[in-house]
User: Which sequence fits this backbone?
């Protein structure tokens, strides 16, 4: 079992309603994001070099979603992870995940 992700109501609604903001894009359920954290091939960037606020990026497979997802989260002062955003992996994130799993890298 991977590290637990905590979602407040606002952030959970934000990822669930992703399709409202991106035509053709579907929502992401918080439990799918948790499956990403449980993926043995999880790729973790802590902190994410692309983040201006020092958030972390996690890339992993969700069985329920049937695809690789990107999860953005931050650590509070106690070290607990709180979900901020999540979306289906594409482009560089998806390539990075696929390369890591193909070569058996420990990400």
Assistant:
């Amino acid at each position: 079992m991977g590290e637990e992700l905590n979602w407040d109501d606002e952030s959970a609604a934000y990822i669930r309603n992703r399709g409202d903001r991106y035509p053709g894009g579907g929502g992401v359920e918080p439990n799918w994001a948790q499956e990403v954290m449980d993926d043995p091939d999880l790729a973790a960037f802590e902190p994410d070099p692309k983040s201006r606020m020092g958030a972390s990026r996690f890339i992993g497979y969700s069985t329920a979603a049937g695809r690789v997802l990107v999860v953005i989260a931050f650590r509070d002062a106690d070290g607990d992870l709180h979900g901020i955003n999540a979306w289906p992996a594409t482009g560089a994130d998806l390539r990075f995940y696929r390369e890591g799993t193909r070569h058996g890298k420990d990400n």
The beta strands are 5-6, 43-45, 56-62, 67-75, 81-88. The chain has a mean pLDDT of 89.
